[in-house]
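Supplementary Text 2. Reproducibility record for the structural model of the 735-residue chain.

All settings were left at their defaults, and a single model was retained for analysis rather than an ensemble. We include the record here because the model underlies the residue-level annotations in Supplementary Table 4.
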Amino acid sequence: MAKAGILSLLYPLLLSALVLNCHCQERKLHVVYMGGRPQEDVSVASKHHAMLHRVLGSASAAKDSLVHSYGRSFNGFAAKLTQEEATRISEMEGVISVNPNRIFQHHTTRSWDFMNLTTDKVGGPQESDVVIGLLDTGVWPEHPSFNDSGFGPPPAKWKGTCMTTNFTCNNKIIGARYYNSENSYYFGDIPSPRDTEGHGTHTASTASGVEVEASYFDGVDIISVSLGSDWPDDYFDDPIAIGSFHAMRNGILTSNSAGNSGPFPVTVSNYAPWSLTVAASTIDRKLVARMQLGNGQMFTGITINTFDLNGTSYPLIWGGDAANYTIGSSPDIAKYCITGAMSSDVVAGKIVFCEALWDGSGILLANGVGTIMADVLVENPDYAFSWPLPATLISPKTEKLSWNTSKAQSGNPTATIFYSDAWKDAMAPTVVSFSSRGPSPISPDILKPDITAPGVDILAGWSPLSPSSVYYDDERSTLFNIISGTSMSCPHASGAAAYVKALHPNWSPAAIKSALMTTAYVMDPRKHEDLEFAYGSGQINPVAARDPGLVFDASEADYINFLCKQGYNTTTLRLVTGDNSTCASTTPGRAWDLNYPSFSLYVEDGQPITATFTRTVTNVGAANSTYKASLYMPALISVTVEPSVLTFSAIGETQTFTVNVTGPAISQHPITSGAITWTDGTYVVRTPLVVYNYIPGAPYFLDSGESMAPGSTPAFQRSSVYQKIGSTGHRKTHH
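Retained model, structure tokens:
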């Protein structure tokens, strides 16, 4: 069982928050959400205890049930409740939602150089007080990535703490906490913020890998969350959306992973408009492992092979010829090289060809030398795995050629597998197959994901207690590992946001997000049939984001107006905000006036294309400047911008414009897109615009024509390795 939620605060400050799978018991952990931080001077714990007392009937039962009271940034508590008790709590005055505890999925070098954020572009005394908070599986504090040489003491604004049980903080890791509300641990876990899985160390060392030390009232500037749900939730039933909303109210941008359920549409998670949603894309390096047959013919596979056979050839067999009949295996089973299905008498000392993606243990435990894998469900591998023995993964097309070639060898076929090489990937960046796609399942008027960042074959820190390959019993220990996932892209965006925040400490979360989106590298649409649903505004460009020219700013009031238009009522809204916010003057409708740095227009089948968007930009570039709008649009869409020229005479000045989009009636039309670009000759401010057919509130998955319910597993994930490790791009913390 994986530690699934860690509040790692990285300045790298690390906090580790633990959410563990709940065993089926009468009482299960529930989170009761009651909105904004209480304004009155009253003990929230006492109030929460009183609520439980009323439901459970005694003070002692209430005390045993209450796990934690929240009152610092929002009002709520965690308690162990039966379903009936949870229902009664949900009906109490002031309660917005009661949700059972759940496991969030991990959405899981060269990458910073690839984005042109090299060491000569970072540093400086003004960048030393930025604090990044990470929610993940902890950190290995002794890792060299967290050496505090050259760091001064934590900034004065820091009010956090360090849980020192089996853990030590320093001037780099300035705080750490772990949470285990159910007192349940997996084998090898440590009850402290110390990382035993590796995921948290990897994301933390990525976010803080540049010399930007990555302020909430208790001292955090950026929160990085590489976690997410498998199914869409209403905003105030989604704890990550709730937490990021309250962070936004306190001036903190939350960077979220988009999820690893791609390439299927409407699978994007963490889609709240007040947070940054990050997809995963490749860098200009791919890792390949060559294999050579006895006749000298060479084939390549996308794999991380750390074993060196020194060019020695070994007998090559088909897995189906090595069935362990004693335990009931057969060629139809053994061809997949499943653990326990293989005969060690046959496999020992040989390289085995396997027709499925597995973790290598089937061959390893049968004393095989190595494995060559091909899986019909993984036609074009675009990210690499590390294995516990010499291995390579080839495409099914290559598999047929290589196997037929090997069988044609005179005598017994042989093969060898070479140590992995790093090859230049001239196609990069491209969005990786596993990265979740839009549109947003809850608010399709908001384009999600927002942006993409490197998330494929990322080298970063690792816990020495965690296996170094996809095989969980791999006993090799390492301080660095190469893995993939939106869990890896998210901390890149978090680090970039911290970089911008350091240069502009007074900018709002929306302004920082806007800077990252409007300056992004434009992705090649010819490589992505789902266009912006794959990559949002493009790939982050941290250097350009530090000086964007114009920003699309937004305040809490703007998001409240958005929520009102989404159908929330005044009563619920005030419970969330804790103030006099009202929806009385707002009519539910489309979200076209939220000041977002992109434009999304869904059209129901048979309806014409028509919308008017309103946007306001703030000048953060040259004081005296004139920006002109230019349009790139497909023939299907007609767009006018009024006014098309914006003139500024001061920094901080704002200008408002409207975008009118029209076109014919469309049906069954996939995403089509263009862009509106503002330029003054120096700055380039680009915002994508997408139009597509969609039925609101109808998230769907496509699986060979089958209809799928949210949360079910797409076909390509049913292959064993994707299922077991969730792909090192999937092991569901968005790693």
